[in-house]
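Hi! If you just cloned this repository, the fastest way to understand the data is to look at a raw example. We've pasted two of them here, unedited. The first protein comes first, obviously.
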Amino acid sequence: MDFYQPDPTEYEDYEWCNDYKNRFMEKHQNDEDYLLMEELKDEHGAQAAKALFEQELMRRKQKIPQKLELKKRQRRKHRSLKIREIKIKLKSNLKLLFNQFKVKLKNQMPNFQS
């Protein structure tokens, strides 16, 4: 993952080149892939680091479908729990409304038997 470094002789202002490099480093210093690549370069050299980095990317690609499936399952589970909670609330609200209705009906019609 080499980044573009302009040739200082191409530009009158060498500071521009240095500034570009510094901005790139700031932008990518928290990027996990970039940090991993730099770490691999330090340990194994540039060519080996590139190969190891490609292996890591392939491993991640294989993990992504598993993560998506897990997220889907968690969403379904969460959704079913939400539905269950709503059903319970509706049932209790319905019972409460029915009891209120019976009380009103009893008040209006004293002879009413439930």
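Ok, and the second one:
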Amino acid sequence: MKNKWLINMAEIKTLVIDGEMLDARDSQSRLKSYGYSSIMERKLRESEKWQAATLNSIGDAVIATDEKGIIKIMNPFAEALTGWSKDDSVGKPLNVIFNIINDKTSTEAENPVLKVMREGAFFGLSEHTALITRDGIEIPVEIIGAPVLDDWNRIIGIIIVFYDILGRYKMEREFFFGKA
């Protein structure tokens, strides 16, 4: 019995799995089963909770889509800026929820998903981009886009980060033209 361990099963009360102490017995003192799938499911749930908490803590508006531009994730800041709830947005095409225009010409701005698919990451869609909210309010925004890549560097999604720059516009006008 070289390299074999014999354990008195009656003495086991706790197990340590991945650094976490777990009860080894149920309420009737029977040994619990911690199979690979139950451990992986628990780790996946923990990871998803951590990712959601991180996304919700980011101070900018964030929308994530699949490679076709269908919204998968939206944080509270994106909900506030667009006027659309996450529940109403997930599953819809980005251009339905994220309606952007050139605020000088009032023409439709380039779809950020198409820009990322064509060019990869970008910083600033154009100098005069405005978001049209669900209520029809025009808000000047700065937009950053980046691809989400799989292990083979294929684009499997797009991350769009955007923020309101109305305050910056006001400060620039005051600086160049004086207070109105």
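That's it. A detail worth noticing about the second one: The domain at 60-175 is CATH 3.30.450.20 (Beta-Lactamase).
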